[in-house]
Automatic annotation (TrEMBL):
One of its GO terms (molecular function) is hexosyltransferase activity. It comes from Hyella patelloides LEGE 07179. Coiled coil: none annotated. Keywords: Glycosyltransferase, Transferase. This is Putative UDP-N-acetyl-D-mannosaminuronic acid transferase. InterPro entries: T2SS_E_N_sf, WecG_TagA_CpsF. NCBIfam families: wecG_tagA_cpsF (TIGR00696). It comes from the Bacteria. It holds the Pfam family Glyco_tran_WecG.
């Protein structure tokens, strides 16, 4: 079964028209297979660089994913018909991939930035994601590597077994570097810009409301006026003009096919792999969702030792550590079935689901695979559903955003 990734043309550049959770799912499928893939996180500055520079435009065209990182790109996609498009911000991609990689046995390599930033980032990663397998952390010099140095770096990354490679060199240097190493490095390379420094706590990220209203550029400008005022002054006005011009010009949206089609084998995430038990205990889930503190959980566990006949959830409710409604919501997510999510998203009708469940009872097999084989849903949709089911069971009803 072959599928294509939806792509929309914005100012002459391809932008992937998939939601954050869908892109994360897709990246994970590639990473598990150690496929050499390219992911760029685009904003108005990047698209203007491509508009003015033919070579850089070719770099974006050859990418596997060009994510709408900036809110202006998200607004354009919504106006062009993708009304459910959300922002695929670099920090959200970074955090979600690290979180999921830590429970799916995917190792990660961090490339670029400075030793100071990398050291601070590593300490925070080890604290937040103790199960994350860090395959390597490597700063890069500002000068170009020699052929021998570059070959040694490629060998080091490939020998590390990393499925995800985060590259932090700044735009357009990191995109050019990644493009040059496509099909040489066996993993998904993702250009993340300033994410390393922000995650490490050395730079501040704009508050959520500022980001959602599209003024993150202004927040960054106030932090680094000398470095950024020329860039923003040069790119924002022409981007606004060209964007408005494109939106006012009659067009027919086309969903282009990527050169390398996805196969069912590549797109399906194994449910057995995703459905780990690392965060399966209800108390740990409540802590992960910031509903209770670790101290409250420890108190409840001590109380349970005295009264083993009580469940941990009952103790938490009795001691007013958590409300019964909060506990019931978490429990409902923990026990959620794949078919239930399909019904919520109107992917199948109740009648079709009932027929499929009867077929499963008579013939065995996994419900998702049966639906794919019977062409009820696509393999791509199943991949997204498996990630959502895992996420809701272990971390709540939606992907976490920092």
């Amino acid at each position: 079964m072959k599928m294509s990734i939806p792509i929309t043309n914005i100012l002459g550049s391809p932008v992937t028209s998939l939601r954050l959770e869908e892109q994360v799912s897709l990246i994970l499928t590639w990473a598990k297979k150690h496929q050499s893939k390219v992911v760029y996180l685009a904003n108005s500055h990047m698209l203007m660089e491509a508009y003015w520079n033919l070579h850089f435009a070719r770099v974006l065209e050859k990418a596997d994913i060009v994510s709408p990182d900036g809110m202006p790109l998200v607004w354009m996609l919504r106006l062009m018909g993708f009304r459910n498009q959300n922002r695929v911000a670099g920090m959200d991609v970074f955090v979600n991939l690290c979180r999921l990689a830590s429970v799916t046995d995917i190792s990660v390599f961090f490339l670029g930035s400075t030793p100071e930033v990398l050291g601070s980032m590593k300490r925070k990663l080890e604290k937040e994601f103790p199960q994350l397998s860090i395959a390597g952390i490597e700063p890069l010099p500002f000068y170009p590597l020699t052929t021998e140095e570059d070959e040694a770096l490629i060998e080091k990354i490939n020998c590390s077994g990393a499925g995800l490679i985060f590259v932090c060199l700044g735009c357009p240097k990191q995109e050019n570097w990644i493009a040059h190493h496509k099909d040489k490095i066996n993993g998904v390379m993702i250009g993340v810009g300033a994410v390393f420094a922000v995650y490490a706590g050395l730079q501040k990220r704009a508050p959520r409301l500022v980001r959602e209203f599209g003024f993150e550029w202004l927040y960054r400008l106030m932090q680094e006026p000398r470095r950024l005022w020329r860039r923003y002054g040069k790119t924002i006005p022409p981007f606004m003009y060209l964007a408005i011009k494109q939106l006012l010009t009659p067009y027919k949206r086309k969903l282009q096919k990527v050169k390398r089609d996805l196969t069912q084998e590549n797109i399906i995430l194994d449910l057995a792999t995703l459905d780990t038990k690392k965060y399966s205990k209800i108390g740990e889930i409540l802590v992960k969702q910031n509903i209770i503190t670790k101290d409250f959980l420890e108190e409840a566990l001590l109380e349970q030792k005295k009264h083993p006949e009580l469940k941990i959830g009952e103790i938490l409710v009795q001691n007013n550590f958590v409300s019964s409604s909060q506990l019931n919501k978490v429990l409902s997510n923990q026990n959620i079935k794949l078919g239930q999510i399909m019904l919520e998203k109107s992917l199948v009708s109740p009648v079709k689901l009932k027929q499929t469940l009867k077929y499963q009872t008579d013939n065995g097999g996994l419900i998702g695979e049966i639906m794919v084989n019977k062409n009820i849903i696509t393999a791509e949709s199943l991949s997204y559903l498996l990630v959502e089911q895992y996420w809701r069971k272990n971390f709540g009803s939606s992907f976490i955003k920092n």
